[in-house]
Write a structure and sequence with these properties.
This protein is an alpha/beta fold. About 40% of the residues lie in helices and about 20% in strands.
């Protein structure tokens, strides 16, 4: 019996990267390889690193991982190293020069080249969207588009992924049906910009139609929407969310800031007044919806007055879920070319801590309001004393978990 060659795949960065890894894993397994994802003991014939290139910390993590693997290769514990994903898409030539230990580099979209370079043959029956789910088998991520046309001042994503490109609705429906047949019940719908879905294919935003169609597929228990853009928001998705019981009353919509001055510097194409109306209308049309957002502190133009304005906005909005991060300058972006990064790092860090402390108090108050209510919970895993799950208001990995105490002696 011929032993299969082992390939370890390490995935760094966001859930959109994870989907690419899962597709590659499926194709490699179909070609006869033993595929291991994020192993604690990376070893064997080949390791593939799916890199992130979004912000400085993520880029450093990718580089550090590659360097560790290069050392393991020198010691004879690894055969070949392949690098793919966002970091290599953006810094392809530089990485080839600086990291000669890596055997092949691939970008964000040409990872299928790994199959060709291995001389592997994937059966022709394998569909492009088929993948090997690496999350717990009951939930997954559904990537409905790539790229972004917004070109916010701070963001390097369009420089990495290119223009916004939607996946056709029919293909997404087929993918969901296939995953439901494999036991997936919860679909976290992801894109860099949900609000623009369909414009490039159908000539107009079609997120509402897509979600309506997916919600009617038998076996889909939950659909949860991630990363809507606030400007040109697709209002017609709100009646769809209100209509379908399996569309989670949850929306992830990154707002970044509230000061008109900072929003203008960020090139966000929206004002403070429009942002506040957006929040009010979403809550009015989808009662009980939980909003998740991301804010940025320390962007050029944010003085003490603008930061105070941001804090008052957080107090007013009372987000159910909120994350924040400090601005870091990314090469090639509009901000890097046109604004000096003048806010000292210690000031950024202090503002970040302050706004997150404010949000923690709000989140606690909102969670305390759920005491006494009965909520549907999906169980992700079992611990010695608890079952660990989530409600429809909780996305995997980023939101709170629900602990269900086991019966005595259970």
């Amino acid at each position: 019996m011929v032993k299969k060659k082992r390939i370890d795949i390490i995935t760094l960065g966001c859930s959109k990267n994870l989907v690419d890894t899962e597709r590659l894993s499926h194709r490699l397994a179909a070609a006869g390889y033993e595929v291991v994802n994020d192993s604690d003991d990376v070893c064997g014939d080949i390791v593939v690193v799916n890199t992130c290139g979004f912000i400085g910390d993520a880029k450093q993590e990718s580089i550090d991982t590659i360097l560790e693997l290069a050392e393991a290769k020198k010691e004879g514990r690894l055969g070949r190293i392949f690098v793919m994903g966002c970091l290599s898409q953006r810094y392809f030539e530089e990485l080839k020069t600086e990291l000669p230990e890596v055997d092949h580099f691939y970008g964000k979209f040409d990872w299928n080249g790994i199959i060709d370079d291995l001389g592997a043959e994937v059966p022709p029956t394998v569909k492009p969207y088929e993948r090997r789910v690496t999350t717990p088998p009951h939930y997954t991520y559904l990537k409905i588009s790539e790229g972004c046309n917004r070109f916010c001042a701070f963001c390097a994503i369009p420089l990495i992924t290119g223009r916004h490109t939607s996946v056709p609705m029919e293909e997404l429906e087929e993918e969901v049906r296939l995953l439901v047949a494999k036991g997936v019940k919860e679909f976290n719908v992801i894109a860099q910009d949900l609000s623009s879905y369909g414009i490039d294919i159908y000539g107009e935003p079609c997120l509402a139609e897509l979600i309506d169609r997916l919600a009617m597929i038998e076996g889909v228990e939950w659909l949860r929407l991630h990363y809507a853009y606030p400007a040109q928001f697709p209002w017609d998705v709100l009646p769809v969310m209100a209509k379908h019981g399996n569309v989670c009353k949850y929306l992830d919509i990154a707002l970044q800031h509230i000061s008109d001055k900072v929003l203008s510097n960020m090139r966000r194409h929206i004002t403070k007044a429009e942002t506040m109306e957006l929040i009010e209308r979403i809550r009015r049309e989808v009662p009980g919806i939980h909003l998740r957002t991301t804010l940025m502190v320390g962007f050029p133009g944010e003085g003490e007055a603008e930061f105070e304005e941001l804090k008052k906005f957080v107090e007013w909005a009372r987000f159910d879920r909120m994350g924040a991060f400090a601005y870091s300058e990314e090469d090639g972006t509009y901000a890097a070319k046109h604004f000096a990064d003048v806010v000292p790092q210690e000031v950024k860090d202090a503002r970040l801590a302050e706004i997150m402390e404010l949000q923690e108090g709000i989140a606690l108050e909102l969670n305390e309001q759920k005491v006494g209510r009965t909520l549907k919970v999906i169980i992700d895993r079992e611990e010695p004393d608890f079952y660990v799950g989530r409600t429809e208001y909780d996305s995997p990995e980023v939101d709170p978990e629900v602990l269900v105490r086991k019966p005595s002696g259970g």
